[in-house]
Write a structure and sequence with these properties.
By secondary structure, this protein is mainly alpha-helical. The protein has one domain. It has 17 helices and two strands.
């Protein structure tokens, strides 16, 4: 067996498994949505009441575990919460703004049954833009009224509030110093699972077609903890098989979803740390986020034609269109937006200088103290060392 840390070092801390996994999961989301966009919500519920739930239900939790693991690396590399949250915003918001605007001003106009005056004057048109800040609205005026999944423009946006909760939770734990204390990581794992167990008793299964947002936040936090303990967690193919079996079983038993985070995260990290040969055309950019965002609206557009109401026809037609739009989004929106991080770093330097901090020589003693300096708050005691006690945290790096 080999530790996560050693496995990642073999790939220069950039294993291609995470790239392939993100793309595979985004493709799985589109494949899953062929059911409700082709046959309607009742068919989706029937699918998720079948053993297939053990496969399709795994997709989004794995996305969140993967995100937690990689985002923890970003948190470690950045000097302050200002730069960490800034990078998160630069990575996620531009594509989301583009998708919401494109849906409202192009897709909606193309497929609405309303007159243009009525479309633009309807409150649903204005409220749709609240999606940008995580207040989710699924409908645009008169759009997709006769589809098998009527009126829903982008059903995949349901995960955005959970993503925001993940970043807020991680930032809060960092601000109070918890994430700067590695000794507390095990307690975070235990507390996360205890909270989910309590919620399982309280809420049970609200909707079999979805995994609870609380479970998704739990997967994210366990992913963060896995990164923190990467030198102490060992990878084994047999253990990964057991984790996959455990997740399948948990999906099939009542309230089993609430105990997914630990086995899902182990399976995700095991797969992500593999390092198959990188294919330049396929992995020339990160197209997974675009696929995740644009897939559902395109599938709904395809489903406006009744002859496409077979899952395989929907997939064959929608996937290439979604992939093409994801490529355009990466090169025209997402990647250019990341160039703004140089401005963000200059602002960060200015905020640090306001406190007369010499960041060139200061050691990293915890994200809480760093954030306090950047935000103008008196930092707490920094006696306990952080993740990289005797190393400078490099500026920037991969997200």
């Amino acid at each position: 067996m080999i530790s996560i840390e050693a496995k990642m070092k073999q790939a220069s801390n950039r294993p291609t498994g995470f790239d392939y996994l993100r793309l595979l999961l985004a493709t799985g989301v589109i494949a899953q949505h062929t059911v409700n966009t082709s046959y309607g919500q009742a068919a989706a519920e029937a699918l998720f009441h079948s053993p297939a739930r053990a496969v399709f239900g795994l997709i989004v939790p794995m996305f969140f575990s993967l995100s937690g693991f990689l985002v923890a690396g970003s948190l470690e590399r950045n000097r302050t919460l200002f730069s960490f949250l800034g990078l998160r915003g630069l990575r996620l918001l531009p594509a989301l703004i583009f998708e919401v605007t494109l849906s409202a001003l192009v897709l909606g106009l193309a497929f609405t049954d309303f007159a243009l005056v009525d479309y633009f004057s309807d409150p649903e048109f204005r409220s749709y833009f609240w999606n940008i800040v995580g207040h989710i609205h699924y409908h645009l005026p008169g759009v997709f009224l006769n589809n098998p999944a009527p009126r829903i423009v982008n059903g995949q946006l349901w995960t955005i509030p959970a993503e925001l909760k993940c970043y807020i939770s991680l930032a809060a734990l960092s601000l109070i110093g918890v994430m700067g204390r590695r000794s507390l990581t095990g307690w975070i794992v235990l507390l996360t699972q205890l909270v989910l167990a309590a919620l399982a008793i309280r809420y049970g299964v609200e909707d079999p077609t979805l995994v609870s947002p609380y479970v998704l936040v739990g997967c994210f936090m366990i992913g963060v903890c896995a990164f923190r303990l990467k030198d102490r967690i060992f990878l084994s193919g047999y253990a990964a098989i057991l984790a996959a079996a455990a997740t399948s079983l948990l999906f099939l038993i009542p309230r089993g979803d609430w105990f997914l985070p630990i086995p899902v995260t182990y399976l995700t990290v095991y797969l992500g740390t593999q390092n198959p040969k990188k294919r330049g055309l396929l992995l020339s950019g990160d197209y997974s986020y675009g696929l995740y965002l644009y897939g559902f609206p395109i599938q709904q557009a395809v489903a406006t034609q009744s002859w496409t109401h077979e899952w395989w026809i929907n997939f064959i037609l929608a996937y290439p269109l979604a992939f093409g739009l994801a490529v355009l989004s990466w090169w025209m929106v997402e990647k250019p937006a990341m160039k703004l991080k140089s401005i963000m770093y200059r602002v960060e330097d200015y905020l640090l200088r306001l406190r007369m901090v010499d960041w060139h020589s200061r050691r990293v003693f915890g994200m809480a103290a760093q954030a306090s300096v950047a935000l103008g708050i008196t930092p707490p005691s920094a006696k306990e060392s952080s993740w990289q006690d005797d190393e400078k945290v490099p500026r920037g790096g991969n997200l």
